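Quick start: what a row looks like.
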Amino acid sequence: MANGQVVNVPGQGDPPLGNNGQYPGQGKPALTLETTTVFTMNVAQSIDNQEFHAQQQVTVSVGPPPPPKPKITKFNGSIKTDGTKVELTLSWITELADQITITNINGLQKPSDTLVIKPTQTDPLASTYTLEARKGAEAATSTISIIWTGYKSAAVGSFPWDCAILPNGTRLFATNGVSNSVSVLDPVTLANVPNSPFKVDNPVAIAASPDSSRVYINRIASPANKLSGYNSGNFGSVSGSPVDSQKTTSGVAVTPDSKRIYVSGNFEVRVFDASNMKQVGKVSVGNIAQGIAFTPDGSRAFVAISGDAVVSVIDTAKIQQIATIKAGSYPIDVAVTPDGKQLYVGNQGNSSVSVFDPVTLQQLPGSPIGVSGGPLRLSPSSDGRLMFVLSNLGAARLNVIDTTTRTLVGSAPTGGSPSGLAVSPDGLRVFVVLMSDNTMWMFLPSAMGGIG
């Protein structure tokens, strides 16, 4: 309809309009305005032979039609792996976009393309890849998330309690509490290495030394539990082993320089010299001391104190507690990112993970982070971009947290009763031992989400 055109309302043969009359009526085409238009309404009414007239003008402004919006019709991700390396293939199709970007990938992309990503230890997979198709101020987005799912498994001994991988990535250990043994597997094939399993009475918690030369194992014994060291190559007992640790032991950890072993128990943490396995100190802490972690420089140790809902902070030079941090409900494990900037605490009682600054001990933004199930074990990727959280209370899940955004980016079921967690040095393989199934599972990344 052009400005100045006359439209009679009602039209020839139409009924008169009432107070709520509308034009056009049902079944009639709507007016199409070409430009800003002035509508003039003239109303005439005859009452008792007298004519009454009224006029009202309304201006309707017509702007240009909205620009077409960009659209993503396809964004797919697929992962190909043989257990030692991974290739991520991203493919996409967009419409009406003049700028295409993907997070964690440098440069502009084509409107439609396929890209193969081959991660390395120095440039690993990101937790998410978000495609943005932009045209001016308008944009469309789609995200593919990388989660870890079960790839293959291998049998271990009866009632596996814990697991650990050597930092050089050559051997994977599982403590078999009922079968009185320790299984040692190839971390790629999950096959037993020669002389595996080797005999250890009632093994529970295990930790590998950072120099990969030894593993240290807490063993249930009477009247006191035992701490034993074993050579990681021939599984021989190290000089000075075993030694009394505590009546009740929960966690074991080795300082970053491989020189000392920390063992947690009900109300204290004991410290042993790795050169001769002799106790060199102890620290009184709260009720039910469990998981232990160190800052990268080894100056501080953090211990989850489940019964008191705190984390104990220990000065390792003085072997003294210097502070406590209020955590969530029943904190059970702790982990420090490789850059030493974040301390993660798994709160089993309320299915969350708290995050603190290891220096100031202040809680960081985004904390606490909700996860699926009550956390049991925490372990970061080698580059520190991801924190793996194994849950076994309420839900048996492997959760993945992005440490940059401090958000949960993935969660996958583990099955069984998960009891131990280990991450390969390249961050590709995640290992979960299942106590109820007597198995070791390897989890590998897979892609989820997208469009089309």
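That is the whole record. The chain has a mean pLDDT of 90. The two ends are 41 Å apart (CA to CA).
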